[in-house]
Write a structure and sequence with these properties.
Chain B: InterPro entries: PEP-util_enz_mobile_dom (IPR008279), PEP-utilizing_PTS_enzyme (IPR050499), PEP_util_AS (IPR018274), PEP_util_C (IPR000121), PEP_util_CS (IPR023151), Phosphohistidine_dom_sf (IPR036637), PTS_EI (IPR024692), PTS_EI-like (IPR006318). The complex is a heterodimer of chains A (about 90) and B (about 575). Chain A is an alpha+beta fold and about 90 residues long. In chain A, about 35% of the residues lie in helices and about 25% in strands. In chain B, helix 9 crosses helix 21 and helix 13 packs across helix 14. The interface between A and B is medium-sized, with 28 and 34 residues.
Chain lengths: ~90, ~575
């Protein structure tokens, strides 16, 4: 399993748009991918799950991937986080 | 019979047309016990597939007819229909409880709707509407009911609905749909946002329109003030036709002014800037034709988190604002925290008089490491644009000198490390304490500019807590004492070849603008949405003419006298 911390820098936090991009990308991988915020952990392939956390701008979150393609999944997520200006 | 209703003004403009009721289809769900689980699962799957293919079409239409940005919401809807946390529980329910798909869907969606509605954040609360929209679509397929299709409307109408789902709203054709009114919703609901993008007048949250407005009734929607008039008489119609014409004329004038500089009738240029809180606000500034940012409140970077923002994070935020402003002046105010503005991770002792206590520059000079970090971040970002730094709550010259010295120390350190920084950063102060306004001539020799913060200047000059309603009558922007201080600051800066701006509420006020213009204020900074209105007003005023009245205005005795003098002046001009 691999994990990575991010600070959400996008001004609106994890709103519908950034979340959609993350969820759509995660769904393409076989690994279990999750997002943890405020001690709550949700499936990153679930848009309702992620949005229900209400992650604000400035929040610190942890993403973990576990499975055969975990490396590729994390690389893709990392790419989106940075390119879409979601977090760093 | 005519009557009027009111709601939340969600999108500007006025429309007069016949009512078209958008009825919600009857989607009553009954719980039934099923026998063939496999068949029920297949029925559910097929309803989801059909809904997805409809959404794909709506998404494509939206991106073609409106924008990719607006289409993005349907990507979210499509993801909801693939969400394992939604589909999983539904299929589990069908399998284990042997209930019909409609019931399983509704139970599960309601759980999520309840979850979102209970969230402590307006944006997330509104997302419950998105879940309802998606659920409704799938339910309609399961029940074999067709949903009314607003894209089929081919007459000029005003839509009356309980609520407009995002998918309803994007299908409204602005050629025929002149406005809409809903019973529920708020200014940030998706339909309200889209109405503003499409420039369709809208009033939302009007509560009783579905129960009181009949199909075909003539309706006036006033999206400027949130009013709805049903079956208006001839006079009322004439009155609103005029209001509509005025609004449209003003709108086209503002659209033209958006790309122009702010010039008075006699050819003087003043700078109109905006006050912002985050890098995301810059889009709005540019959209409203801002020539500068007169106040960037950096405290938002520090709020809503559990530790101080790092130097890198701050550099990124400041650089982002500077880059977006593309060389236009950008005044950044250093951290104004303490007193009534608290940070959870900064344990400051409670004070008896927080507005007179350890806040803003006072706190920064006490917590030098925190302050140095911000100054370094600003310096590192400085190469990306036209940065000006100002210190808040300066009461004495020594405070300014100390703060400036820290700035120069950090600049020298960075240069020594080979970090590139701009050499033309102006360093100025906020004038919000009377002592500083009085001593402006002395300050003017050392600072690069002044920015008058009127909200605090008024509360400190009249010794009236602006949070205390019982003394709110003392919050007097036009009190001659305030005007004399403002004049003193502007004159002092000009004598030394420096400039003065204003970044309080007063800078965008239509009574204050003629006075400030006459006094020679160089920069006006206000909320972005006030800029075009102010530019339009200034273009009709003569600076030389106003100058000749300042001496008289400064000898008036009361706030009321000032206001009535200025009103007379601007009416006759």
């Amino acid at each position: 399993m691999i994990e990575k911390q991010y600070n959400i820098t996008g001004g609106e936090g994890l709103h519908a748009r950034p979340t959609s991009v993350l969820v759509a990308a995660s769904a393409a991988f076989k690994s279990d991918i999750s997002l943890e915020f405020n001690d709550k952990k949700v499936n990153l392939k679930s848009i309702l799950g992620v949005m229900s956390l209400g992650v604000p701008s400035g929040a610190s979150i942890k993403i973990s991937a576990d499975g055969e393609d975990e490396e590729a999944a994390m690389a893709k997520i990392d790419d989106i986080m940075k390119n879409e200006g979601i977090g760093n | 019979m005519n009557f009027s209703l009111s709601g939340i003004a969600a999108s500007n403009g006025i429309a007069i047309a016949k009512a078209f009721r958008l009825e919600n289809p009857e989607l009553t769900v009954e719980k039934t016990v099923i026998i063939d689980i496999e068949a029920e699962l297949a029925r559910f799957e097929s309803a989801v597939t059909q809904s997805k293919s409809e959404l794909e079409t709506i998404k494509e239409q939206t991106s073609k007819q409106i924008s990719d940005e607006e289409a993005a919401i349907f990507s979210a809807h499509l993801l909801v229909l693939s969400d394992p946390e939604l589909l999983g529980p539904i299929t589990d329910k069908i399998k284990s409880e042997k209930v019909n798909a409609e019931f399983a869907l509704q139970e599960t969606s309601n759980m999520f709707i309840g979850l979102f509605e209970s969230m402590d954040n307006d944006y997330m609360k509104e997302r419950a509407a998105d879940i309802r929209d998606v659920t409704k679509r799938v339910l309609a397929h399961l029940l074999g009911v067709s949903i009314q299709n607003p894209s089929m409307i081919a007459d000029e109408v005003i839509i009356i609905a309980e609520d407009l789902t995002p998918s309803d709203t994007v299908q409204l054709n602005p050629q025929f749909v002149k406005g809409f009114i809903t019973d529920i919703g708020g200014r940030t609901s998706h339909s309200a946002i889209l109405a503003r993008t499409l420039e369709i007048p809208a009033v939302v949250g009007a509560k009783t329109v579905m129960s009181s407005i009949e199909n075909g009734s003539l309706v006036i929607v006033d999206g400027l003030d949130g009013n709805i008039i049903v079956n208006p008489d001839v006079e009322t119609i004439a009155q609103y036709e005029e209001k509509k014409a005025n609004y449209e004329q003003q709108k086209s004038e503002w659209a033209r002014l958006k790309h122009e500089a702010t010039i008075t009738a006699d050819g003087h240029h003043v700078e109109l800037g905006a006050n912002i809180g985050t890098p995301n606000d810059v889009v709005g500034v540019i959209d409203h034709g801002g020539e500068a940012i007169g106040l960037y409140r950096t405290e938002f970077l520090y709020m809503g988190r559990s530790q101080f923002p790092t130097e890198d994070e701050q550099t990124e935020a400041y650089a982002s604002v500077l880059k977006q402003m593309n060389g236009k002046p950008t005044v950044v105010r250093t951290l104004d925290i303490g007193g009534d503005k608290e940070l959870s991770y900064l344990q400051l002792p409670k004070e008896l008089n927080p507005f007179l206590g350890l806040r803003a520059i006072r706190l920064c000079l006490e917590m030098k490491d925190m302050f140095r970090t911000q100054l370094r971040a600003l310096l590192r970002a400085s190469i990306h644009g036209n940065l000006k730094i100002m210190f808040p709550m300066i009461a004495t010259l020594e405070e300014f000198r100390q703060a400036k010295a820290l700035f120069l120390e950090e600049k020298a350190k960075l240069e020594e490390q080979g970090v590139e920084v701009s050499n033309s950063i102006e360093v100025g102060i906020m004038v919000e304490i009377p002592s500083t306004a009085v001593m402006a001539d002395v300050f003017a020799k050392e600072v690069d500019f002044f920015s008058i913060g009127t909200n605090d200047l008024i509360q400190y000059t009249l010794a009236a807590d602006r949070m205390n309603e019982r003394v709110s009558y003392l919050y007097q922007p036009f009190n001659p004492a305030i005007l004399r201080l403002v004049k003193n600051v502007i004159d002092a800066s000009h004598k030394e070849g420096k400039w003065t701006g204003m970044c309080g509420e007063m800078a965008g006020d239509e009574i204050a603008i003629p006075i400030l213009l006459g006094m020679g204020l160089d920069e006006f900074s206000m909320s972005a949405s006030s800029i075009l209105k102010a530019r339009s007003q200034i273009s009709k005023l003569s600076k030389a003419e106003l100058e000749s009245h300042i001496e008289t205005i400064l000898t008036l005795s009361t706030s009321e006298e000032v206001v009535s003098y200025v009103k007379k002046l601007t009416v006759t001009e």
